[in-house]
Amino acid sequence: MNSHSEHVLALLERLSRVINNDAGLSELKPAQWEALRFLSQANKFSRTPSALTSYLGVTKGTVSQTLNALERKGLICKKKDAGDRRSVSIQLTEKGKGILNNDPLKALLGAIEQLSNSQLNTLASTLELVLTTALQQRAGAPFGVCKSCKYFMRNVVDGTPHRCALLQVPLTSMESDLICREHTN
Ligand code: SF4
């Protein structure tokens, strides 16, 4: 590892400590905030305990405890799938959507908003590359945004107005901005 790589690694570690320290001072645990954020960004195929487990890269037991705590606080609700009773989908409640306004991660936004558009674009593409490579090494799913997936069909006759060629379902414009566990580059 050269000294530039080590410096970047140290910066990422410090940044992650700032994020976790901020979250640790709030009313929810860091893992509970991560679960709420995921549920606010994930599409309907991904709002499940198993997708959350894959997204967070933690054990099923940890996710189960996190979801039970959020349910007790009235921030999420679980619904059994009508077609498959063993499958559960998770929704944010109105209270759950509301508490995201107090997300401690937003404290970092002020610093990020100081960057110019070209700095933001460079930072976003660089971090995406690092994250994707790290996930590939761990066989993790990238959970990309739907409209950048190779199966996304924009404005098609049998879409609403878009369509997923993998799952063979219509997609609204709002759904095309959400993240998906099946996303493929
Ligand atoms: S197009 Fe890709 S990302 Fe979108 S729903 Fe289908 S598989 Fe998921």
UniProtKB/TrEMBL annotation:
CDD domains xrefs: HTH_ARSR
UniProt keyword Transcription present: yes
The keyword Transcription regulation appears for this protein: yes
Keywords (A to Z) from UniProt: DNA-binding, Transcription, Transcription regulation
Pfam family, one: MarR_2
Superkingdom in the source lineage: Bacteria
Signal peptide start-end: none
Alphabetical list of InterPro entries matching this protein: ArsR-like_HTH, HTH_MarR-typ, MarR/SlyA-like, Tscrpt_reg_MarR-type_CS, WH-like_DNA-bd_sf, WH_DNA-bd_sf
Residues covered by the HTH marR-type domain: 5-132
PANTHER family from the UniProt entry: MARR FAMILY REGULATORY PROTEIN, TRANSCRIPTIONAL REGULATOR, MARR FAMILY
Name of the protein this chain belongs to: MarR family transcriptional regulator
